[in-house]
Design a protein that fits this description.
Elements lengths: L2 H14 L5 H13 L3 E8 L5 E5 L3 H10 L7 H5 L7 E2 L6 H4 L3 H7 L6 E8 L3 E9 L8 H27 L1 H4 L2 H6 L3 E5 L5 E4 L1 H9 L3 E2 L6 E2 L2 H17 L10 H4 L3 E5 L8 E7 L15 E6 L9 H8 L3 H11 L4 H8 L3 H15 L4 H11 L4
Antiparallel strand pairs: 1-2, 1-5, 3-4, 4-5, 6-7, 6-12, 8-9, 10-11, 11-12
Length: about 375
């Protein structure tokens, strides 16, 4: 599966995090990525009954799945057999002929018109979650390339859901609370229609000091490149235009459905900043009244201190240990010249490793490789 499709799915999943129907929208994105008939999310937490959400499937069938996931239910043992944080085809867990005879299939899966599934699960001591993208029995099984795409996207699905829960708990989209915004570990800036900052949280201030791709001033937010500044201001103006009336203290349905993404280049060649711009009418943190904020800018910054999971890189793309180390070190800020000197090899040899990494990861430029590694394989 092409890397562009995976990157596009990741971007849309993060965009969905700010929408009211964001969780269902994210499931639908996963369904479309691999051409599935339907998708379900199942959540189990200690001292609470299991809960389910589905797209492309009847709500009653999803409720039956949730009920069957409880202790002693038809789905409980099957769910416990799922490997943690690894995308697998359900056919690799149990043979088709054996699955057809199970209570899980006859009582839960068959009413959903399902049979073949690509599954990804998170298993914890107090909670677990499972996402399954499913196809009917008459359709083909999930191919390795499709499972690989799920493996790459699912960590971002989880991150987007955490962001969504954090936004909901802080009431950010409704109130713009200063304390809640400052508590976030993501950069957040509230701006007016002219892209002038009305509120900058602590993390955004830190990013502005450290990353030359973003410049903050009372006159307006600018990028290192004039073209990127112009595009950012066009996005903010478009978000402001979505709001039909002046600030009302809450997002309209149309505003909630819109967002845009932009990468800001770093003149020093480091990984770009990723900005997500969404429309918002917020309560002014200074006096609690509805203020002039028209857009919220969420900033994802490269974090050179985060370790990269080299083993996961090797597994996902078939890299050798040295190729995975090249990708990891470049993503962490090293240069080709510094690596060649450190390892006592020629720059041409190092470039040979990098060319092999490009071919296996489906990237063409070092910046794209760094973005892929930091977004999918750096520790949270």
């Amino acid at each position: 599966m092409q890397a562009e499709a995976v990157f596009g799915a990741v971007e849309r999943i993060y965009d969905a995090a700010v929408r009211p129907e964001g969780c269902a929208d994210s499931l639908d994105i996963l369904r479309g990525l691999v051409g599935a008939d339907h998708a379900v999310l199942l959540t189990r937490e200690a001292d609470r009954p299991p809960a389910g959400l589905g797209v492309g499937v009847d709500g009653g069938a999803v409720r039956r799945l949730a009920e069957a996931a409880g202790d002693g239910g038809a789905a409980a043992e099957w769910l416990r057999s799922l490997p943690a944080q690894r995308a697998v085809a359900s056919s690799s867990l149990i043979a088709d002929a054996d699955f057809l005879r199970t209570e899980m299939y006859n009582e839960v899966v068959r009413p959903m018109n399902g049979f073949r599934a690509g599954v990804y699960a998170w298993q914890g001591r107090l909670s677990s979650r499972m996402v399954a993208v499913c196809r009917p029995r008459q359709m083909r099984d999930f191919e390795p390339a499709e499972l690989k795409a799920l493996q790459l996207v699912m960590p971002h699905f989880a991150s987007a859901q955490r962001l969504r829960r954090r936004l909901a708990s802080s009431d950010l989209l409704v109130a713009g609370s200063q304390a809640a915004l400052d508590a976030l570990d993501s950069g957040v800036i509230l701006v007016d229609r002219e892209c002038r900052p009305l509120f900058v949280n602590r993390r955004a201030e830190e990013i502005g000091r450290q990353h030359r791709g973003l410049r903050l001033s009372s006159a307006g937010i600018t990028a290192a490149l004039p073209a990127e500044t112009a595009l950012l201001r066009q996005m903010v103006a478009a978000m402001a235009a979505i709001l039909a009336r002046p600030a009302e203290g809450a997002l309209t349905r149309g505003a909630a459905a819109a967002s845009a993404r932009l990468c800001l280049s770093d003149p020093e060649g480091r990984a770009p900043l990723v900005l997500t711009v969404a429309p918002v009418t917020a309560v002014d943190p200074a006096d609690g009244r509805c203020g002039p904020a028209r857009a919220a800018i969420f900033i994802a910054a490269p974090d050179e201190a985060r370790p990269v999971d080299g083993r996961a890189l090797m597994t996902a793309f078939g890299l050798t240990a040295r190729e995975a180390e090249v990708a990891s070190r470049l993503a962490s800020g090293a240069t080709i010249g510094s690596l060649a000197a450190e390892w006592g090899i020629s720059v041409n040899t190092l470039r040979g490793y990098l060319k092999a990494v490009f071919g296996k990861t489906g990237t063409c430029r070092q910046a794209d490789l760094v973005r892929l590694v930091m977004q999918g394989f750096a520790a949270a």
